[in-house]
Design brief:
CATH architecture: Orthogonal Bundle
CATH class: Mainly Alpha
Largest sheet: 2 strands, antiparallel
CATH superfamily: lambda repressor-like DNA-binding domains
Number of strands: 2
Distance between the termini: 7 Å
Strand content: 5-15%
Number of domains: 1
Strand order of the largest sheet: 1-2
Shape: globular
Keywords: DNA-binding
CATH topology: 434 Repressor (Amino-terminal Domain)
Protein name: Putative transcriptional regulator
Helix content: 40-55%
GO molecular function, one term: DNA binding
Order of helices and strands: EHHHHE
């Protein structure tokens, strides 16, 4: 899975820590999601959707490997 979390975060001028606090996870979790080392749960994806005010499909995409 690929994502544009880092870009979406930059658009809102949020640090990894800011975003982590908004959705109730650690900064390391945000870092791992951005680096494609961790696939978030549906609940976390929906929380990100609320923060970015966009559908989940706008910032998460299936890769050819999925």
């Amino acid at each position: 899975m690929e994502n544009t979390i880092k870009v979406e975060r930059a658009i809102l001028s949020l640090t990894q820590d800011d975003l982590a606090k908004k959705i109730g996870v650690s900064r390391q979790t945000i870092n791992s999601i951005e680096a494609n080392r961790y696939v978030p749960s549906t609940v976390l994806a929906l929380k990100l959707s609320e923060v970015f005010n966009k559908p989940v499909n706008d910032f998460f995409k299936l890769s050819d490997d999925d």
